[in-house]
Specification:
six-stranded antiparallel β-sheet; Peptidoglycan synthesis regulatory factor (PBP3), Domain 2; Beta-lactamase; 380 residues; 2 domains; 27% helix; 17 strands; alpha+beta
Length: 380
């Protein structure tokens, strides 16, 4: 496609009236106590709600999501890991009391990290998969950059406080959306209770429960993901819930009530956000000029229906940008792509649809083209 002509216009207020009657009740944005929060759609990546979502915050044990991703993509869950002194020396926070010389599979360590938030297991994971802890942390930062998590930096695998260990609510939502695409990760973060088993000693087992209370019936459809708590990071939670054919991710950082914050965001996402038909198949979006055409213009029609999800309150803020091929020259065939209509709210793209020619436009005959050139060159 050649350089595109871009024009911007606010969608007319009549759209609001057509889609929602004047009496329709509209709920307010979700109330959250978290210093930073975000609500994101897993399928589309669309952000439905955000508050300080790019603010730098400490992630606490939410760090273990990246630890798990790197382990899953670079390790073999059936590998038997021999516990070293560094992992055995971890004593802060939740641990499964790993002891030097014990043997346990990588899969069991991952289970302990994601379900029980075991801090010692992440160190053992790092030393096995990365060769040493610091090399594994480098792998975490490399993965963060690859995912576009440009507000994130890791210095450890479990989220212990460090001034150079930070992230944002947005980055965590992006990471979680990616991680949920891994079946094993998805399975573990919704496991309520399980047993960790050692290879050596062979009879050692530990029953662990998930630290995410929402999985225990706090909200219908909850299916993940991870808690995090330190004195500096405060109470943090990434939760996911599935309903009405879609899955949402809620992130609450440094919250006074992390569970209620996520519930409020889920209520907003499932009960307020709705699907809206923006343009119908065959509906005219523009009538661009055609150079050298027997007809001076051609109707640009939507190739298909376009539905987007948004808060009814945002309809007056909906903007449309037409991206049309320029120059548009005859001949043109009916159904030929002429460009796209793109819809935004607050700079976030919500959807786009191809625009196609509504009719054939023949090229002008030689006499018509000669006359146009003559008129064009007349002195003004």
């Amino acid at each position: 496609m050649s350089l595109r002509f871009i024009c911007k216009m606010v969608v007319i207020a009549a759209l609001v009236y057509c889609l929602f009657s004047p009496g329709t009740a509209v709920a307010a944005m979700p109330r959250v106590t978290a210093d930073a929060a975000i609500l994101l759609d897993v399928e589309t990546g669309q952000v439905y709600f955000a508050n300080n979502h790019t603010m730098r915050r400490e992630p606490a044990s939410l760090t273990k999501i990246m630890t798990a991703v790197v382990a899953l993509e670079n390790g073999n869950l059936n590998d038997v890991v021999t516990i070293g002194s560094k992992a055995a020396g971890v004593s802060m926070g939740s641990i499964i009391e790993l002891r030097r010389g014990e043997k346990i599979t990588l899969g069991e360590l991952l289970k302990a990290a994601l379900v029980y938030s075991a801090n010692d297991s992440t160190v053992a994971i790092a030393e096995h998969v990365g060769g040493d802890h610091d090399r594994f942390v480098t792998m975490m930062n490399t993965k963060a950059a690859a995912l576009g998590m440009f507000g994130t930096r890791y210095v450890n695998t479990n989220g212990f406080h460090d001034p150079n260990h930070y992230t944002t609510a947005y980055d965590l939502a992006v990471l979680t959306r990616y991680a949920l695409g891994n079946p094993k990760f998805n399975e573990l973060v919704q496991t309520r209770e399980t047993t960790v088993s050692w290879v050596e000693p062979p009879n050692r087992e530990s029953i662990i429960g998930n630290t995410n209370r929402l999985l225990l019936g706090g909200y219908g459809g909850v299916d993940g993901v991870k808690t995090g708590t330190t004195s500096m990071a405060g109470n943090c939670l990434i939760a996911s819930a599935t309903g009405e054919g879609r899955r949402l991710i809620a992130v609450a950082l440094h919250s006074d009530d992390r569970y209620q914050d996520c519930i409020n965001m889920f209520d907003y996402g499932f009960k307020v956000i709705r699907e809206v038909l923006i343009i119908n198949t065959g509906q005219a979006a523009a009538s661009p000029a055609v150079e050298g055409g027997a007809s001076p213009t051609v109707e640009a029609l939507a190739e298909r229906d376009l539905e987007i999800r948004l808060d009814p309150d945002d309809l007056p803020k909906l903007e449309r940008r037409l991206e049309l091929i320029e120059p548009l020259a005859a001949p043109i065939k009916k159904g030929q792509k002429l460009g796209e209509a793109v819809y935004f709210v607050r700079g976030q793209e919500l959807g786009r649809v191809n625009l196609v020619a509504g009719a054939d436009v023949l090229r002008k005959g030689w006499y018509g083209r000669f006359w146009d050139k003559l008129v064009e060159n007349l002195p003004h």
